[in-house]
Design brief:
alpha+beta, Alpha-Beta Plaits, 4-stranded antiparallel β-sheet, 4 strands, globular
Length: 95
């Protein structure tokens, strides 16, 4: 089942985020949950990271909660808010 994880950073965490990123990337690469797509959310000028967006494939919400608990970005207390939603992938059929 697909889920989105939409995370907004706390103000002033740029350095903490940078320090936690190597562990976060390693964690994503080793996770049992399939990371379909992920990346940083940016400000409109594309200069500053303001959060993170993930599309993941997981068996259920409990697996997402377990996945999040051990994420180095969560452990570094980077996010002000995190929203998890089930996602129904549709195909764009425009020419």
């Amino acid at each position: 089942m697909l889920f989105t994880i939409f995370c907004i950073d706390k103000p002033g965490v740029t350095e903490k985020r940078a320090e936690a990123m190597p562990g976060h990337v390693e964690y994503l690469n080793q996770s049992a949950i399939k990371n379909v797509m992920s990346g940083p959310l940016m400000d409109d000028a594309m200069e500053n990271v303001v959060g993170s967006l993930y599309v993941v494939d997981a068996p259920d919400r409990a697996a997402i909660e377990a996945f999040q608990k051990d994420d180095p970005l969560v452990q570094a207390d980077i996010w002000e808010s995190v929203e998890v939603r089930a996602f129904n992938k549709r195909v764009d059929n425009r020419d």
